[in-house]
Model the fold of this input.
Amino acid sequence: MDIDAATVAEIRSLRWFHEIDFGKGVRSPGVIKASKLRRISRAVFDRPLTGKSVLDIGCWDGAQSVEAMRRGAARVLATDHYSWHYGWGNRRCFDLTRQYLAPCIEVMDIDVPDLSVEKVGTFDIVLFLGVLYHLRHPLAVLEQIAPIAKEVLVLETRIMPWPSSRPMMRFWPGSSLDGDHTNWWTPNVACVRTWLADLGFSRVRAYRPDWRFRRCIFHAEKSVVRP
Done:
């Protein structure tokens, strides 16, 4: 779908988290650049998506929702609430992304603690990227989200940078982590692995895509699902 000059001007005037490539030289001025988003996508989508259903929790501007559709997902539901209403995000950014790149993406404005099977149903693959450490009660929310994933939960989070075989996490009061009052916790890898195993995921794999070893992506499978 062609983008008129007025819409291009609007895209460039909005504050974006994701740098979205709309084609023909039009890109949103996102904080997370398109090259990094591509690297993240390669780690997030480590298996074929053809015919699969995907839930993208905390989608923000919708970069990974679009990527899921591009990779052949049969259904994608994108959800967010905090970044569209209380953070510095803008729902208009997501709407433009959806309109011009993947109109068939479904959308629901729902806060993370309100997610449940009763509210959204179940999905083959659930994306939970960049959300966990912003939650004041992360394990309680994980307990609600786990049943939604029929096959795989892909969880990305800030982590404690030093290794330990003992599950632990650090609490960050106020704005003590990066000056952001929404950053509450940094679990270590062992902690997240233990949580996911306790919630019924039979296989958990961890990737550290961040060269500073501050973030990690976990692929948690309900049963061993081969790519």
